[in-house]
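Reviewers of the previous submission asked for a worked example of the structure-prediction workflow described in the proposal, so we include one complete record here. The input consisted solely of the amino acid sequence. No template or homolog information was supplied to the procedure at any stage.
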Amino acid sequence: MTSLWPAETKDGHVNHDSLKLQHKNALKLSKVRAFEIYSIRHTFLTRLGESGCDVWTLARIAGHSQISMSQRYVHPQEDAVLNRFSRLGGHNIGHSANSALPEPESDSDATDEIQEG
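From that input alone, the workflow returned the following structure tokens.
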């Protein structure tokens, strides 16, 4: 897998120390109020989880070795859960919602059986 933020370092990606220094310089130059750079990662993973990303994909993106780490970022709200269920409404696999119920007998069927017997 390629690095999301490649850099000319020994391991080929931005390391914590260089990112910290770049962040500090960017805050100083932009005069933006200081914040933890890690907050961006947390916010990104939280938004990804809220968008419906499954925990296994989120774990892969985040580089987590266990999905239990990624579960922290998946907080489906009630409307998100209902939205997922509503997506199932379009599935047709050769049966309808009523196919599991027995067909009701019509009055003419019952009358025919009485007259024949």
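The radius of gyration is 28 Å. We consider this example representative of the routine output the project will generate in years two and three.
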